[in-house]
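Hi R.,

Here's the chain you asked about this morning:
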Amino acid sequence: MDSAVLSPTSLILVAVINNPRDLEIARLLGWYRIPLRSAPKVIAVDYLAFYQTAAFGTEKWRIQYLASVNGHELTTRLELIQDEPEHPHAQHEYYKVQIGPLIRLENPILADQWRRITFFYTTGDHLLKAHSMHDLIVESEERQFLWQALRERANQTQRYTAEELPEFTIDPAVLAGLLGIQELDNAYSSYKSPPIQRFTKA
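And here is the predicted structure, written out as tokens:
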């Protein structure tokens, strides 16, 4: 991953890709959809990092691509996928997130022992250094600052919010939920990431 692509302070939403078709839509059409009913609190981030589920076969349970976020709008599934008018969610509301070209990571970020990933936030600094999903978890002392940055970004640019965003000082458990890392915290509570050699001699 070229550090020139994103900065350490970039706001990143880890987003789930459940099937290869959605990744092709992201690649060819430049958008990604998020159901409003299960959307994270803030959509106005700098990048999406795509977590590929078991549907991807040999490339499952990993983050292999990210893309810059260019904007978002609220629409329906039918407007997004017009060849499925009878789909049970056709009239449900979705965020359509406009994205830039997919950026392939030189080394994918693997899910290691926890694979039930949902939306969660991290930073460019964490992503640049990460070798596993555990490395993306923002430590407790940094979480208030990450939430403040997300909240300020939402107030500046986000037109659609499901509910009012909480203030800066928040109970740690509530904050972990807002950032989408509560389950990850629990899953990795007894897990220690192995030592990582980040650089090799030429």
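One quick note: The longest strand covers residues 62-76.

Cheers,
M.
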